Fold these 2 entries.
Entry 1:
Amino acid sequence: MHGEMGYMARAPEDRPFISRWFPAARSVVVCAFSYHDGTPPPPPDPSRGRLARYALPPDYHDELKKRLKALLAFYKEAVPGAKGKVFVDTSPVLERRYARYAGVGWVGKNAMLLSRDIGSFFLIAGMAVDAELAFDEPVPEHCGTCRRCLDACPTDAFPAPRVLDASRCVAYFTVELRGAPVPEPFRRGHGDWLFGCDACQDVCPWNKFSVRSRVFEPDLPPSLDLGELAALTPERFAERFKGTPLQRTGWQAVTRNALLAMGNSRDPRHRAALERFAAHPDPVLSEQARWSLGLIDSRQ
Ligand code: B12
Ligand code: SF4
Ligand code: SF4
């Protein structure tokens, strides 16, 4: 269920309990930060690959850590001697679980934390503190009989509602799986996703209530030209995507994703780039290019 994300298997018994990470914890404050830029998803275009919305602003970790640290400093000033610790994504804290307890929203059938007020295009960050604070109640769930997200998932990554099998998820393959090929049975499901995947959120009716972010501005466009991307050397890639979420995933995996999206587009205009990569010394890239050429040719 975790794919190659080994850290998820480490100390699994600690992950549900914030007090194992911060023993003094008595209360948890959870914040939601919209990253929606107010624009609709881009129209399909065989020459381009799509980026998930969260990847458009600069990498969010530093910005949210800064804001949570300021909140913690404010708290410590108000309560001299108080202790606290902030979490933004990378700590062993199950953020959706605590956000649910804190009343930020409910866990949708797509496993996303979902709010009636702002939909699900938001990031979670928070802090644990050593005092007992007044608390909000969890909100009831509002999915009802809807199952649009389950039906929209292109790789059948939900064995049951609210249970995500990460080892089938396009977001996992495109962002976290590096140095390895995308397993063949999931390639067609990637469609034109280049980095991350929003298919199970784009269809959610609650996302018509998404609010424009007051924290993040897009730095990247919602889709990138596949030919231009595949033409970048590792050095040019590093320059172009410095400070963006694509930087951490790196040239090899993002180029692999671009070659895969080229195949799924079935657009013969990508043939020259794919033929160049079919002879590339990197076996992951050359194999992906050959697979994509096969898909384009199978249509002729
Ligand atoms: C690893 C990870 C991934 C893995 C998935 C791992 C997984 N199986 O969930 C991959 C790489 C695939 C991934 C994808 C995405 N991720 Co991610 N991811 C994480 C990370 C770092 C850890 C999550 C984790 O441990 N999951 C393990 C499962 C077991 O825990 P969980 O999903 O939190 O589920 C709990 C709740 O569902 C709860 N629960 C509550 N009620 C109920 C009811 C029932 C019936 C059930 C079964 C469960 C349940 O129980 C579960 C266990 O406690 C978190 C940050 C963090 N530290 O939490 C971000 C995080 C979950 N990701 C986030 C985002 C934005 C995404 C993507 C949307 C990115 C994208 N567009 O490509 C996709 C969404 C995919 C999806 N539909 O969930 C946000 C989610 C924000 C939100 N509004 O929910 C987080 C919180 C990061 C952040 N700081 O904002 N992610
Ligand atoms: S992010 Fe994409 S692949 Fe992953 S569960 Fe949602 S729709 Fe499926
Ligand atoms: S698409 Fe429907 S089932 Fe899925 S999270 Fe949204 S409301 Fe719930």
Note: The chain is about 35% helix and 10% strand.
Entry 2:
Amino acid sequence: MVAGYIKELFSSFQGEGPYAGRRQVFIRFAGCPLSCIYCDTAYARYPEPAYCTVLNKGSVSRIKNPVEHYSVIHLVSELLTPDTHSICYTGGEPLFNAVFVDEIAKEARRLHYRNFIETSGYSARAFESIARDFDIASIDIKLRSHRAVRDDDYESLYDNELDCIRISVDRGLETIVKVVVMRGTPVSDIEVISRALADLRIKFVLQPVTDNKPDIDELFTLSEVAGSFIDDVMVIPQVHRCMGVL
Ligand code: SF4
């Protein structure tokens, strides 16, 4: 029996990337070692919240943390609807709780749920330990300008992200790579990343940050540069912010 810290459990529509609009049950794990300047889930970065909030069709309840993995599966099953596409393991940063995530994912697999993980890719070792239990991975690449880590630690973060992407592709997961872009994002940053991913079978998403987003000419340029190296490139904003959902 494995227990861990969850910040929120709820059903909603995926708001990012090629699965935007798909209904998912979201498990928002607590804790994240990064500090991106655009973070919109900073409330989930504290690793040991006292309670997990469960939102179920207008009703709100609280479960005491840490929660056992079987209880998580039970709560997930109560949130399932006929249109549910998959279980979304998000954060915070799910790899921060890799052992706990793995126990839940294994049980979800046994029940034939589809598993989807959203991660910053900060730890390739942690990702490798859970990859076999997932169907779809959305992995971020942080730019230096996102200030996710101290400048001295950026190369290590970048290498881990690339390794996570390679592991995901090698293991046969559908792999989505997401880069948040802002006004003034250097074209050279996107070119370097796109070159590094050129041989991999991925979907590449440029996600304009909701505040301080690039103008349309910047987006055209960034998309064209990425498309010079990667077949499947798309620009998709955060759809859930338009819909006013979590
Ligand atoms: S990785 Fe995600 S949760 Fe962590 S600081 Fe960045 S945006 Fe926020």
Note: The pocket of iron/sulfur cluster is lined by residues 32, 34-36, 39, 41, 45, 91-93, 120, 148 (CB under 6 Å).
